[in-house]
């Protein structure tokens, strides 16, 4: 079965391409290369043994997407990763985020409209904001968005629900990711932040390898075990496998319409837990200091993943130590083998 993977050369997309092949699917990659490197295609080929079909395409180009649907007609499923995803940048450039994240989604849904199609959408736990109850489950209220990025995820989920309610042939699953980290066990693919990393784990590994002088812990005065923020970190390979599980559920006759699942480990770790796990597993001492809180951070969030275990038939298997070790192996690989 051919699966269109938009954003398929990105961090989560590339790991999902590998797991799709492992599960017997044929991925067709679409990526505009705005936040990924074309050489990741070669790296994927080194893992799966062949180079998947790749279309360089900006999904905001309506004509281009229609041409894609003509050139790639026998697509049985779509996994839609392609979107701008930097929270801070979205506050500075809201129009870029609303244009890119909505035009791409609508063009894609429009171009493939009519075929009975299984659609997996890359959503985020950011839609929960600071949940009232923890762990947070899928019935929790959607909080007012903390950023235009988060708002695009909330509104995209509503677009998908409305599409289903209109009686379209689509079947849709939204996966609400918690915090994806780590890298493939081969260390041939991983996270490739452009410029100064915004996210914790790439900043940790770049500090460990000497690219950054030190890492700042954004606040240690929160109401958490050690005062630093709590997140549900999930290995990117576990996350990739959740997309395969979502496709399998969509393929079932019994699945109708729309559903949404939390994709996390169900466990919370503080920033300092992560730093200490990195130091313990790699033996590398990190130069870190405590600094002021970062604007917009939620204090603590981790997922209730019961529904994913029971209905999606998926649960995370890899622990925080494996996440840290694999992230470190990738950082060392990319330092010695710049793409
Ligand atoms: C995690 C924790 C920081 C850097 C965001 C998006 C989410 C997803 C993942 C896109 C926080 C702390 C970080 C640093 C630090 N994005 N931190 N020093 O903010 O939970 O989630 O990225 O898909 O949708 O919201 O992830 O890695 O930026 O931060 O102390 O140098 O690490 O304050 O508590 P976040 P993050």
TrEMBL record:
<dbReference type="Pfam" id="PF16363">
    <property type="entry name" value="GDP_Man_Dehyd"/>
</dbReference>
<dbReference type="InterPro" id="IPR005886">
    <property type="entry name" value="UDP_G4E"/>
</dbReference>
<dbReference type="InterPro" id="IPR036291">
    <property type="entry name" value="NAD(P)-bd_dom_sf"/>
</dbReference>
<dbReference type="GO" id="GO:0003978">
    <property type="term" value="F:UDP-glucose 4-epimerase activity"/>
</dbReference>
<feature type="domain" description="NAD(P)-binding">
    <location>
        <begin position="4"/>
        <end position="324"/>
    </location>
</feature>
<protein>
    <recommendedName>
        <fullName>UDP-glucose 4-epimerase</fullName>
        <ecNumber>5.1.3.2</ecNumber>
    </recommendedName>
</protein>
<keyword id="KW-0520">NAD</keyword>
<comment type="subunit">
    <text>Homodimer.</text>
</comment>
<dbReference type="InterPro" id="IPR016040">
    <property type="entry name" value="NAD(P)-bd_dom"/>
</dbReference>
<keyword id="KW-0119">Carbohydrate metabolism</keyword>
<comment type="similarity">
    <text>Belongs to the NAD(P)-dependent epimerase/dehydratase family.</text>
</comment>
<keyword id="KW-0413">Isomerase</keyword>
<comment type="pathway">
    <text>Carbohydrate metabolism; galactose metabolism.</text>
</comment>
